[in-house]
Specification:
With 486 residues, this protein is mainly alpha-helical. The protein is built from 18 helices and no strands. Helix 3 packs antiparallel against helix 8, helix 6 packs antiparallel against helix 12 and helix 8 runs antiparallel to helix 9. The protein is globular and about 65 Å long. It starts with a helix and ends in a 15-residue tail after the last helix.
Length: 486
């Protein structure tokens, strides 16, 4: 009787909760691209070098990627509401410091602190979504909205960053987080109930925390160095080798401790493992779309930052609509297996279409179609994969399961940054080798670098299709979190 009496009020509140955690998630994903647009203006204002410029982006991604598993477990330990509020307030304060930065060091420090609190926010947002929506149809709709935000946030960041930088000042690309955080904090504090936590009986796995944080730091840092160093340089392979050792030690620790940071039962599920690999592949592909098409539109088509952001809107629309329909209508009936592989195949087709770009290609004739197609494909693949990555876990494990989803996405972006940038640079060098340099040749070589990269991304998408087809299960996803609402 109690469940039936309280269900209408809970239904009303959970959609408002979705709106608030959607704001928090948007703030995290915006920050991955919005600052990129502001970098030239920030560099001119603060006077830092081109070599230092990358650290404005890298400081955030290093802290964020390395601390995600800890952030997920903190939510399980002290409660998701409390963790989310701490993350929102901390992120807003770090953004305020970054916006007011008077030196390069001050800005880099603020960006690193943003990454720390972002590592609290991202997994907590997803785990709260997982535990709030237990009904299959409602959960599918909620994950469709979440997937659209996660997939489109980068493009929204480009649009918003361009507008703020052009019409206000680069500092507003950081200050905007304060307004978002205030709205989300008020909403979360008002709408989300305090939850019972495991209290003093739960002990944080310190050795596991240290090894996984150091291992993920090494992954992100090693791949980040590959942009400016040769793969044979110890600054690349040394850090990646250290990552392999540290992560191996981490998993050995997890198999032996009584209360592991990452219970291995979470990874033993075939569907969850397949969904994490799928999300990693999506992270690689989305990086290529945002980075290389942004350069193509601005350098070859002459688009302004604002116009570039607007040019991504058709992809955002296709992604949002497809993710919503897929998770609401199709996923509850079929499960992820028939949907995700098809989404990857469609995204691979879009990437192959982009390999036909030429110096004379226009937006309508060569970019708009593949953009809409990739939005359709990623919409099919992303939201069901995120749903499958957190479905069926115990409420006490929702935070760390959500952290693994975010970690897969972050590592995918890091791999994409290093590997695809290297592929593009090598393709450009090969195209220019032994030829007399001219402006026309430089343009053609640059576009050849882009198209070569898109061909490689198509291969990653095909691999994602094969992996998801082999590992994901058909049928309705398990709803292990329903117990929390009974």
């Amino acid at each position: 009787m109690t469940t039936l009496d309280t269900k209408p009020a809970a239904d009303t509140r959970r959609w408002w909760i979705l709106a608030m955690i959607g704001l928090a998630q948007l703030m995290v994903v915006l920050d991955a691209t919005i600052v990129n647009i502001a970098l030239p203006s920030a560099q001119a204002d603060l006077g830092f070098s081109n070599g230092d410029r990358q650290w404005i982006v890298t400081a955030y991604s290093l802290a964020f990627g390395a601390l995600l598993p800890l952030g997920g477990r903190v939510g399980d330990l002290i409660g998701r509401k409390r963790t989310l509020l701490i993350g929102l307030i901390g992120f807003a304060l770090a953004s305020a410091v970054g916006g007011a930065a008077q030196s390069f060091g001050m800005l880099v420090t603020a960006r690193a602190v943003q990454g720390v609190f972002g590592a609290l926010l991202a997994p907590t947002v997803l785990s709260l979504l997982t535990t709030t929506f237990s009904d299959a149809k409602e959960r599918g709709k909620a994950f469709g909205i979440y997937g659209a935000i996660a997939g489109a946030g980068g493009a929204i960041g480009l649009l918003l960053g361009g507008a703020l930088t052009e019409y206000l000042d680069w500092r507003w690309c950081l200050y905007v987080n304060i307004a978002i955080a205030v709205m989300a904090t008020i909403g979360i504090a008002t709408l989300v109930r305090d939850e019972q936590t495991s209290g003093p009986k739960f002990r944080l796995d310190i050795p596991g925390t240290l090894t996984v944080s150091a291992g993920l730091f090494s992954v992100v840092y090693g791949f980040g160095n590959a942009e400016s160093h040769d793969w044979s340089d110890v600054a690349v392979w040394g850090w990646l080798a250290a990552a392999v050792v540290l992560l191996t030690v981490f998993f050995l620790i997890q198999a032996r401790v009584a209360q592991p940071l990452l219970p291995l039962r979470i990874l033993r599920d075939r569907t969850r493992g397949g969904s994490l690999l799928a999300i990693l592949m999506i992270g690689i592909g989305m990086f290529a779309i945002f980075l290389f098409l942004t350069y193509f539109m601005q350098q070859n088509l002459g688009f302004s930052p604002i116009r570039t952001g607007v040019a991504f809107l058709p992809m955002i629309g296709c992604l949002a609509v497809t993710a919503g329909v897929t998770t609401t209508v199709i996923l509850p009936r079929t499960g992820p297996r028939p949907i995700v592989p098809v989404g990857f195949l469609i995204a691979a087709g879009a990437m192959l279409w982009l390999t036909r770009l030429e110096p004379g290609t226009g937006y309508a004739s060569g970019v708009l179609g593949p953009l809409m197609l990739v939005g359709f494909g990623v919409g099919l693949a992303m939201a069901p994969s995120m749903n499958a990555g957190t479905a069926g876990v115990l409420p006490a494990d929702a935070g760390i399961a959500s952290a693994m989803v975010n970690t897969a996405q972050q590592v995918g972006g890091s791999i994409g940054t290093a590997v695809l940038s290297t592929i593009a640079a090598n393709a450009i060098s090969d195209e220019l080798a032994g030829k007399t340099p001219t402006a026309e040749l430089a343009t053609a070589a640059t576009i050849h670098g882009y198209t070569t990269t898109f061909a490689w991304v198509a291969c990653f998408m095909l691999a994602g299709s094969a992996i998801s087809a082999l590992l994901l299960r058909s049928g309705r996803l398990a709803a292990g979190t329903e117990a929390a609402h009974m």
